Amino acid sequence: MLFNLRDYFFGTDTLINTHYGLTNRVYLNNAATPLVSKPVIQELYKILPIYSYGIESNALSEELALKYNQVRDIVMNFIGADSSLDTVIYTSNTTTAINLLSQAYYESDPNQIILTTKMEHMANYLPFREKMKTVLVNLTSEGNVDMNDYTAKLEEYSGKIKLVAVTGASNITGIIPPFYDMAKMAHNHGAKILVDAVQLVQHKAFSMKPHDDASHIDFVTFDGHKFYTGQSGGVLVGDKAFLNQYKPLLYGGSITEFVSSSQIIYKPSPGRYEPGYPDFLGIISLGTSIRFIQELGIKNIEEWEQGLYLYLIRRLSQIPNLILYGDVYSNPRTPFVSFNLRGLSYRTLAQWLGYSYGIDIASGLNGANIYVQDLLGLTDEQAFSLYKSGEGCGITRASIGLFNSYTDIDRLVDALFSISSQLR
Ligand SMILES: Cc1ncc(COP(=O)(O)O)c(C=O)c1O
């Protein structure tokens, strides 16, 4: 059982000015970025007195560098990586991690095909699409990956696909695609798999599984700001032998073993991919946040959040003219739901909730342009003409974090009931 979770976070009792006066803000925008946990900032208070440039030439710098590097083990342990076969590369965020991997794949063979899905955030699509031929797997009417289409595309392009890139959980509907099955099938066709886990690992237990398991996940990425740190600092974890072969994504200091005007020897991974000044505070915060989540117990978090989510769905289903997107009962899932009110634009709805009721919620495409267009039933032409007209298209999204309460859910649903009644 989890108690008093709100007390562990900054911003859970923040007041906000609304059209009806001052009220407690309700924060339901956790898939964008959640509130910051107090253990993270308490750890920073301990670290700041030894903060320095961090090169190991004195005891305090060594201590700082050690704490920073220890986060690699914390991450490995958290997602079941294998320290002898995997590397943990620090990146500024998930977007950079996927750009790094896409660059390595491009360098390995610019003519290969990357298979990804229509569910993805653009961070797991554009870095591939802009470099290599990228094929998209279609979706089911419930908003999940269509495994028949996946099978057909793996077969159609067998031997040419070297990487399947799939989200660990949709940032729009929370739906979790069957990525272990996808991994097994990808491996049968000689491809590796990347799971973009930035919306998954803070909500549900996840493992890369051992390398000799058929459903092993080859690459994983996630980051700190979506993990209650409020800071940049993320990771790309995966196949060390593969990642040791390629050039850095960014060039600069600290990535080489030797440089002269006639020769460059890059460090092995992770060093070659970590140019410039290390993000000591962001990365140490990520490690602290992972430990905090592990102490609470990811299973307990999952149970708590799913309870809140099911209550939210039950109540949302009673609101007149509310449209829910994707299969809201799809299981497994993370606690996010996207909706619209018939007759009201997604933008106006979010602003109404924000300025009148103090509810912080997302609206728009939220980076998953193709998925949202698909959920709205729009063709590319229709989406483009809405874009040209300035109206655009989108959904409104409520995403639960572990500090949310049943009162937060009631506040959202009551506001939606009220808005819906004013539209009739
Ligand atoms: C599923 C998914 N992948 C990737 C990203 C990009 O993450 P970041 O902006 O932290 O790099 C997001 C951001 O919302 C996301 O939801």
From TrEMBL:
<dbReference type="GO" id="GO:0008483">
    <property type="term" value="F:transaminase activity"/>
</dbReference>
<feature type="domain" description="Aminotransferase class V">
    <location>
        <begin position="26"/>
        <end position="412"/>
    </location>
</feature>
<protein>
    <submittedName>
        <fullName>Aminotransferase</fullName>
    </submittedName>
</protein>
<dbReference type="Pfam" id="PF00266">
    <property type="entry name" value="Aminotran_5"/>
</dbReference>
<dbReference type="InterPro" id="IPR000192">
    <property type="entry name" value="Aminotrans_V_dom"/>
</dbReference>
<keyword id="KW-0032">Aminotransferase</keyword>
<dbReference type="InterPro" id="IPR015421">
    <property type="entry name" value="PyrdxlP-dep_Trfase_major"/>
</dbReference>
<dbReference type="InterPro" id="IPR015424">
    <property type="entry name" value="PyrdxlP-dep_Trfase"/>
</dbReference>
<dbReference type="InterPro" id="IPR015422">
    <property type="entry name" value="PyrdxlP-dep_Trfase_small"/>
</dbReference>
<keyword id="KW-0808">Transferase</keyword>
<keyword id="KW-0663">Pyridoxal phosphate</keyword>
